[in-house]
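Incident review: delayed structure delivery

Summary: a single-chain prediction request sat in the queue longer than the usual turnaround. Root cause was a stuck worker, restarted by the on-call engineer. No data loss occurred. The affected request and its eventual output are reproduced below so the record is complete for anyone auditing the incident later.

Affected input:
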Amino acid sequence: MRVFVVWFNMYPGDRESRWPREIFTDSRIIQAWDEPKVAGRWFMSHLSDLRPTRGGVGVFPQPDGALWDTYLLFDRDATWSATPTAILSWGSTVLRTRQWLADDLQYAINRAR
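Output delivered after worker restart:
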């Protein structure tokens, strides 16, 4: 399992020098700073292409044309071509949908066994 966390500037005061890298300590988590919001803008512009198999819940539209404060959970057999496949679920905001994420993450772990 891999977890990718992408950080970028969305609020006044957000900047790379204040990025809380220490919040995630698990070695399976890969973090990156994305100042131009490439990942967030790409996902926002492709929302209609993302087809979760277990559902999704969110608050849209999000400001500044970037998907942020959102989780996207992919199954282990996910592939990427024009758009990613095998999306299990997504949620926004992360805090508001954390139980949904926990349930779907447990589902993914059980499927992998």
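Verification: Strands lie at 3-7, 29-33, 56-57, 70-74, 87-92.
Action items: add queue-age alerting; document worker restart procedure.
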